[in-house]
C-alpha cells in the first residue's frame, strides 16, 4: 500500500463526498443514530463539495491509495468569533480501512504544517482526541453543542 497526498482538484468532489459519507458512518456510530447515518447522501455531499472547491479560501488535500481517494483534510481561516488561532482545521477524515497507514498524519501536516491552529472535535471521540494530542492539539476548555448528521453532540475546541 502506497499512500500519497496531494492538493485537491475540482474533479475530486465525488470521491471526497464518498469518503466523507463512509467515514462519518464508520467514525460516528456511537454518537449518531444509525438511521441518521443511513440517510447521509453522497449526492448531496458532492454538491456541497463542488461548492466548497469553487472557493479558494480553504486549503484542502486528499490522501490517495493508488488512484483512489481514501481521505481528505481541509483548513482555512478560523470561523469562531473568539478564535484562539487564525487557522482552523475544518475537516479531516480517513477511511477506517486506512487507519494506521500514516494517511491522517500526512494530511494533517499538509494542511496545518506545525504552526498554531484550532479545531472542533466530538468530545466523545477517543481515537481522534489521541491523534490530535500526539500532534500538540489540546483542549482549551471551550465546549459547545454542535450538529452532526442532525444530532446535537458535545464538541471540544483544541488548540496548539
Describe this structure in words.
32% of the residues lie in helices and 34% in strands. The longest helix is centred in the N-terminal third of the chain and has 15 residues, at 13-27. The N and C termini lie far apart (31 Å). Strand 4, helix 4 and strand 5 (118-122) form a beta-alpha-beta unit. By secondary structure, the protein is an alpha+beta fold. It has helices spanning 13-27, 34-38, 42-53, 103-112, 126-134, and strands at 3-7, 59-65, 68-77, 87-94, 118-122, 138-148, 151-159. Helix 1 packs across helix 3. It is built from five helices and seven strands, in the order βαααβββαβαββ. Strands 1-2-3-4-5-7-6 form a seven-stranded mixed beta sheet, with helices on both faces.
Could you name the key traits of this structure?
alpha+beta, 32% helix, globular
Give the SSE order as H and E letters: EHHHEEEHEHEE
Alpha-beta content class: alpha+beta
Largest sheet: 7 strands, mixed
| Spatial arrangement of strands, main beta sheet | 1-2-3-4-5-7-6
Please state roughly what percent of the residues sit in beta strands, choosing from under 5%, 5-15%, 15-25%, 25-35%, 35-45% or over 45%.
25-35%
Low-confidence stretches: none
Number of strands: 7
Rg over alpha carbons? 15 Å
Distance between the termini: 31 Å
Helical element count?
A: 5
Mean pLDDT, nearest integer? 96
State the shape.
Answer: globular
The helix content is 25-40%
Topology summary:
Elements lengths: L2 E5 L5 H15 L6 H5 L3 H12 L5 E7 L2 E10 L9 E8 L8 H10 L5 E5 L3 H9 L3 E11 L2 E9 L1
Parallel strand pairs: 4-5
Antiparallel strand pairs: 1-2, 2-3, 3-4, 5-7, 6-7
Helix pairs in contact: 1-3
